[in-house]
Design a protein that fits this description.
Blueprint: H1 8-13, E1 15-16, E2 22-24, H2 38-44, E3 48-49, H3 52-61
Antiparallel strand pairs: 1-2, 2-3
């Protein structure tokens, strides 16, 4: 049976921590930032954890499951 291939676009967007959580970046921060509040843009810079509903799908894309 061949090896699982990693989805390269998912590998650039997600990272798995040692405890198994999946870290992602926020959306809506690349353009049209002039109309967004400063504290909103600051919050969008932080990383976020992928929800449990999407966790298995992302792990399959990363070739971890």
């Amino acid at each position: 049976m061949p090896k699982m291939k990693t989805n390269r676009s998912a590998a650039k967007r997600f990272r798995v921590t040692r405890k198994g959580k999946i870290i992602r970046n926020h959306a809506y921060k690349s353009h049209k930032t002039r109309k967004k509040r400063r504290n909103v843009l600051r919050a969008l810079r932080k990383k976020d954890v992928v929800s449990s509903a999407d966790k298995n799908r992302v792990l399959r894309l990363l070739g971890k499951k």
